[in-house]
Amino acid sequence: MDLREEEFIYPGTRACAGCGMALIYRIALKALGPNTILTVPASCLTVLHGMQGFCSTKLSVLHTPFATTGASASGIIASLEDKGLDKEICTVAFAGDGGTTDIGIQALSGAAERGTNFIYACYDNEAYMNTGVQRSGSTPLGAFSTTTPDGKLGHKKNMPKILEAHGIPYVATACASYPFDLYEKFQKAKTIQGTKYIHILAPCPPGWGYDPKDTISIGRLAVETGFWPLYEVENGKFTLSKKSKKYLDKENRTPIREYLKTQKRFAGIKEEEIQQYKQYVNQLWEELKDRIED
Questions:
Q1: Residues 174-198 pLDDT 10s
Q2: CA 134 to chain CA centroid, nearest Å
Q3: Deepest in the core among 165, 180, 234, 259, taking most CB within 10 A?
């Protein structure tokens, strides 16, 4: 498949070198096209957009407080419906994991329960990166952050599963390292009526502790180890994405240790935690196997 050639982000943004979120945003906007309105809470993405009075995208963006992304999207849609433009313009909320799994979950849950017709995309860099790398509900086991200096206790929150429990028509996972898969999922979500949720792993060089040139390889390792399965749930039907199908067989998975050792945030991880990761990944995939329809 061919990606749209037109770019919707101007060059020279304030994103960090090797930023997974910036790559996700670039690809997503290509899939969404020009008839799109975005709403974004306080996050690394507001940094990418720039200072007040300036925006690095060609599309209209509403910046909103941390907790209100789902509510602001609902307001945009209500206004479009009032003007008869809701079929012409796609409304998309783009938020980080802190603004989704923690601070923004109430507004998102409310919008999903109402069946609000928008796409909500979470770019998950697994901590509050914009404010100094504090742990979020999406921070993984054993990861260093400024609020978990000895490593986070417990695994990350399964936000896609939480949104799926709302009975919405489309839930998907994606990763910055697989742009074609990401592009197709946004294109599909745009055609579906109701609340759509896409949760995207966004490797972060300064927050995770790796060389910016390694963003793509680290994202791929997350998928290849089975830590981050790529899938879709459309009207309740679960489907593994092409890039993840081979990892149903655990013999095809790269050992999780290979993923963890690429990042300084896991420098202090204990051997017992690595064993917990192995159990976590195996259990995750056993649950996924049970969902696959013959």
A1: 999 999 999 999 999 999 999 999 9
A2: 18
A3: 259
Delimit the domains of the chain by residue range. Answer: 20-291
pLDDT above 90 coverage of the chain, percent: 95
pLDDT on residue 294: 59
Query: Which tokens go with 71?
Result: 């509510």
> From CA 212, how far away is CA 234, in angstroms rounded?
34
Under DSSP, the state recorded for 237 is: E
CA distance 45 to 54: 13
Angle between helices 215-224 and 20-32 (to 10 degrees): 80
DSSP calls for 104-126: THHHHHHHHHHT-S-EEEEEE-S
Residue type, 88: E
Confidence of residue 52 (pLDDT cuts 50, 70, 90): confident
Beta bridge partners of 173: 199
pLDDT of residue 173: 98
| Arch. (CATH architecture) of 20-291 | 3-Layer(aba) Sandwich (3.40)
Rounded to an integer, the average pLDDT of 6-28 is 95
